[in-house]
Amino acid sequence: MEKYRLIGSLLLLLMTPSLLMASQDPVSRHNFKITRAEISDDLTQQTIRQTFQDETGLIWILTQEGLHRFDGYELRSYQASEGSAGSISHNNVRRMVQDTSGKLWIATTGGGLNYYDSGTRGFKALVSGGETNYLLSNNISTLVSDEIGMLWLGYLDGRLSMFDPHTQDFVHRTLFNRMASQHGSITAIAAPNPLQLWIGTSKAGLLLYQRHTGAISSRKGIAGTINDLISSQITSLHIAPDQTLWIGTSADGLFVVNMENGEIGNYRPSSSDDASILSNAVNTIYEDQENRIWIGTDAGLSLYNAGGTFTNFSSKNSNLQEDFIMNILQDQEGNFWIGTHYGLYAGFHSRFEIFNGNHGLESESITSFAETAGNTLWVGTYDTLYYQNGGNSTFEEAEDQFFAPEESTARIMSL
Q1: Structure pTM?
Q2: Cα 209 to the chain's mean position, in Å?
Q3: pLDDT value at position 23?
């Protein structure tokens, strides 16, 4: 079967109107393809809060009106149903994480914290209002897992809790929570090390929280500098492997902080520079398997390049029909899932470069290939013979001396 498929692919390649060649080029608008996901129309709601892949490979899709699971073949929907044992506690799902034991936890706005029981294939909820070991609020705004397996919950009212998923014990951060009214909502959390948390808020900007002492810094150091530069809310935080801190804001663009020397870069759109970030409104920051940083904005998707430029994808130059990007995921197969305010999209990086008339290859039917000394590539077509010298990106048409005078056609059938 594999052999048959390979032959079929080769025949398709030889008869294509342009030449496809394997490429190691970085992601560009030419080799990163975006299409609307086929399952998008089957979702209960089109505003995608998060796409998440668990360790078994299942894709989970979180929306404002329900949770979905996709196994590559079938899409299953999970809806809250009052009085139904095992149903999720609320349809407004915000965030999903997987703990070190493999258990899935789902934060909701209105229904507290849920976990998925793979044995019963149902959900169990932890809610506020109990006397001990309870949530501070059922309105959770964000949820992250740190490097030692603890879950951190940020609430819409600005409070913060740590949760041990193994013992199911909560530790509420009292000193932090006394100042909750000043924070607004907690919008993002990033854990750079076991001692600290970076916390993004809707009113107080960026906070540095010391886990053991409970101390909060908002006017000193990096937090103070960032807060002097922004007037909008923090929307997203990301710690890269080199320990740079990436900060998304709702109206002040993207900030990148070098934690070693304190240097801060701020990226904003420029109408005169197509390689600038698409928008000042950053919704999400995502690092893929090759350590590339993707920025989801309200005007499309921006891929950060070395040197501070961006490769941009939007409804103006791609198949994206909705530019408000809410989240990004690269799955185990290397494919991308792009959640937007209206629909789910799929993206993939093509490993082929297309050669056509723009590269001097005018014929529409490729029939054969050969390579000679000096890395010269020869391409036979229905019309004539082309060649490409090693290191050259363009093709030249072979001179007439390659063909006998009595030949009535320069059609090349084999090389």
Answers
A1: 0.80
A2: 27
A3: 47
Sole residue written with tokens 């032959």: 7
Average pLDDT of the residues in 305-313: 94
**Coil, helix or strand at residue 36:** strand
Cβ-proximal residues to 156 (8 Å cutoff; 6+ apart), any chain: 109, 137, 139, 140, 141, 185, 186
Residue 253: which H helix or E strand, with range?
none
Lowest mean pLDDT among 75-79, 85-89, 391-395: 391-395
Average pLDDT (347-352) is: 74
Mean pLDDT of 205-210: 95
Q: What is the DSSP string of 305-319?
A: -TTS-EEEE-TTTSS
The mean pLDDT of 183-197, rounded to a whole number, is: 94
**Cα 137 from Cα 279, distance rounded (Å):** 33
Asked whether the CA dihedral 291, 296, 301, 305 is positive or negative, the reply is negative
Centroid of chain to Cα 373: 44
Q: How many CB atoms lie within 10 A of CB 263?
A: 10
* Cα angle 340-342-346, degrees, rounded to a multiple of 5: 50
Residues counted in the chain: 415
DSSP letters, 50-90, are: EEEE-TTS-EEEEETTEEEEE-SS-EEEE---TT-TTS-S-
φ and ψ at 401, to 5 degrees?
Answer: -65, -10
- As given in the structure block, the two tokens for residue 105 are 């936890």
Question: CB of 387 within 8 A of CB of 396?
Answer: yes
**What gap in Å lies between CA 174 and CA 180, rounded to an integer?**
10
Distance CA 51, CA 269 (A): 27
Nearest to 331 by CA among 29, 49, 70: 70
Q: What is the mean pLDDT of residues 139-147?
A: 96
How far is residue 165's CA from residue 92's CA, in Å, rounded to a whole number? 22
Task: Pull the structure tokens for residue 197.
Answer: 């948390």
* 3-state secondary structure (DSSP) of residue 215: coil
The tens digit of pLDDT for each residue in 209-234 reads 998 888 898 988 899 999 999 999 99
Name residue 366's beta-bridge partners.
Answer: 381
Token pair listed for 180: 């909750």
